[in-house]
Amino acid sequence: MKNLTRRQFGKTLATTTAATALTTTLPWQKALADVGKPKLLEFPKGFLWGCATASYQIEGAVAEDGRKPSIWDTFSHTPGKTFQGDTGDVADDSYHLYKEDIRLLKNLGVSVYRFSIAWPRVFPDGSGAPNPKGLDYYNRVLDELLKNNITPYVTLFHWDLPQALPGGWQNRDTSKAYADYAGYVAKHLSDRVSHFFTINEFECWTNLGYQEGRFAPGLKLPNAQVNQIRHNAVLAHGLGVQAIRANAKAGTQVGLAENTKVFVPVIENAEQIKAAQLAQREENAPFLTAVLEGKYTDGYLQREGANAPKVEPGDMKIIGSPLDFVGINSYTPGYVEADSSPSGYKVVPRPTSFPRMASANWLFIGPEVLYWAVRNVSEIWNPKALYITENGTSSDDVLTADGHIEDTDRVMYVRNHLTHLHRAATEGYPIKGYFLWSLLDNFEWADGYSKRFGLHYVDFKTQVRTPKLSAQWYKEAIAKNAVE
Ligand code: PNW
Asked: What is the pTM assigned to this prediction?
């Protein structure tokens, strides 16, 4: 046979067999006729497709229009703390290039964009006098997004804590300062912002910033102090929810974006699913569980013993303030088996051979994590709505001589994760949308500019943005509202 494409080959076979069939089309003949046709996994009508970014990772302009330093400015300027001493001083310069970045969003066809507001632009000292010029930047961004029919989803804290706040998150007063800031932003922006996320990823910044010292402010504190910081963080969230509700336009939706640890049952049966959900609740006790239940689990309080956080009367009710939605940042799975211990589950350590992205040692590949993220959280806590607020991968992207970036690894990572999210969406869980991390290559925290997570390649010398193959793929998926 001549050189035929797979599709042509399928058609040829189908025609030949159809010609030889006498009267009826048999099932296998029909299947053959479908050879090579894409099988579309369609998402529910109205499913929201988006991208996510964060202020310190993209904005630059750190000393402009009255912004003062955040703990990330201090940390990244401390020798030895970030890859090759990289800082967010310039980053993607999105402070000046935001219109171009919104054009990139428009070109992808996204309907939603998740970005964060830099607290030290709005309150340069963390509390006290607001800086109207700082807020004006976000007014410009919002107006440009709305002009392009892109709905803004706004994160109020994505790690850039104003340096000036005395004692930072170690000080309970910071939770109050956060709520004042959140209420102020809600009052001024909720005419155009309908969805606010209080805080991004408690788990990540409390552990890496205050226990392991790998993120700002670079502390390695004993467990009792870290637990108190965790408590101040969820308290800030609760106070923030209340402040947003008190100041925002009626109907404004409030939630959070948490990288909750997600547990996948090793075997999908009732016993193992139950174990995964027990783990989901217990292993997230200081964060998502506390926020969605308004209490710390007995298991957490017992495990921490004398190191458990000191809780003042009324705190837990504030922490458990009702939410309109839950955002889940999800990159990598945990696995669980049922066992006969009192907890009823055992977290299964990953073998060293477990596959991971070659570009990042923490990015273990288990795309089923998106299905179980949605299912576990829905079945345990029954939230009104859910979003995947981050998912994506870094890739060792190289610009080819003719100006292309062929990031097939990112395409495969995202495509496979979306097939599992599709399962959750079609089984009726209240998953409303997906935000890919990230729109652009950006300042990847302690990894500086060495890790590229973007759909668009950024040349950090010229600020030229180039869409990668994954951008083209995502654009088509959005247009079809489906993955293949
Ligand atoms: C998230 N880990 O951070 C953040 O929300 C983003 O700002 C960040 O750029 C993105 O994921 C990619 O890293 C994480 O080590 C950082 O497990 C580190 C981890 C997880 C999430």
From this structure: 0.93
